[in-house]
Amino acid sequence: MKLAGSVALVTGGASGLGAATARRFVAGGARVLIADRDEERGAALAAELGADAAFARMDVTDPAQVEAALAAASALGTLRIAVSCAGVGWAARTLDRAGKPHDLQLFATVIGVNLVGTFNVLRLAAAAIAKAEPLAHGERGVIINTASVAAFDGQIGQIAYAASKAGVAGMTLPAARDLAPVGIRVVTIAPGIFDTPMLGALPEDKRAALSADVVFPKRLGSPDDYGALVAAVVDNGYLNGETIRLDGALRMPPK
Ligand SMILES: NC(=O)c1ccc[n+]([C@@H]2O[C@H](COP(=O)([O-])OP(=O)(O)OC[C@H]3O[C@@H](n4cnc5c(N)ncnc54)[C@H](O)[C@@H]3O)[C@@H](O)[C@H]2O)c1
């Protein structure tokens, strides 16, 4: 599928990996609907990107808001691409040092945004993309999810986050199978450690320590490394049902 001329929805598009994706898309000739619950940053990015970008305030856990964002995306042209970058991180152990169990509501909240929210976008975006005319080989579009290497090597304190991201990786193949009859591919990207506002609060020495375990290249991922892979996934019509690690061969240690 060609990026140029396509219309895309990017959730979490106001910041980090989603913002880099929106920039890539517009640079590549696509039109993009930036959907995020952060209105200030999302609207500012859309204004910066110009006529080929628009913003919709949207919480991925709210079906009506996702439907409204999809309608706004479809107003830009024929929607064929949905990228889910909205996500939250949380650090807490199953039992803390005092023996207190993990807060159950916190666990449910992380699952709610990262897994249920991603599925909410996937199912509603699929319904919207299914209305497009098929392209070559019957392809109508592609849905790209964001997991994390924590789906496979979750660290101490990442129980909720790792479970949510393992869920995203786990639904990739069945989603691709479910959506094959309508010609929609589903691919998940599992990033390693990326230099985004999620990490921005850390001091420089902590950030340097994080890149020490990266095998090669010895640096944190840049948001544009992620955007470049999203563009490659859109372009390659044979890529489907797979979770791709994007991590410089990093394997996360226990902590
Ligand atoms: N940065 C990393 O190292 C890294 C590594 C692996 C996976 N990821 C994943 O990549 C995705 C993007 O992360 P990032 O680093 O760009 O983070 P970020 O915090 O820079 O951006 C996340 C965006 O999602 C939005 N968001 C959060 N909850 C939302 C909700 N319920 N509805 C709508 N929007 C919501 C936020 O407002 C924010 O703009 C996340 O799913 C994250 O878990 C990040």
What does this entry look like structurally?
The longest helix has 26 residues, at 104-129. Strand 5 (141-146), helix 5 and strand 6 (184-191) form a beta-alpha-beta unit. The protein has helices at residues 16-27, 39-49, 63-74, 104-129, 159-179, 197-200, 204-211, 223-235; strands spanning 7-11, 31-36, 53-57, 79-84, 141-146, 184-191, 243-246. 42% of the residues lie in helices and 16% in strands. The chain has one domain (7-246): Rossmann fold. The protein has 255 residues and is α/β, with parallel strands linked by helices. Helix 3 packs parallel to helix 4. It has a seven-stranded parallel beta sheet, sandwiched between helices. The mean pLDDT is 96. Bound molecules: nicotinamide-adenine-dinucleotide (NAD). Nicotinamide-adenine-dinucleotide is lined by residues 11-12, 14-18, 36-38, 58-61, 85-89, 113, 117, 146, 148, 191, 193-194, 196-199. The site of nicotinamide-adenine-dinucleotide has 30 residues, from helix 1, helix 4 and helix 6.
Q: Biggest sheet, in brief?
A: 7 strands, parallel
pLDDT below 50 for ≥5 consecutive residues: which ranges? none
- Identify the overall geometry: globular
Distance between the termini: 40 Å
β-strand amount: 15-25%
Strand order of the largest sheet: 3-2-1-4-5-6-7
Alpha-beta classification: alpha/beta
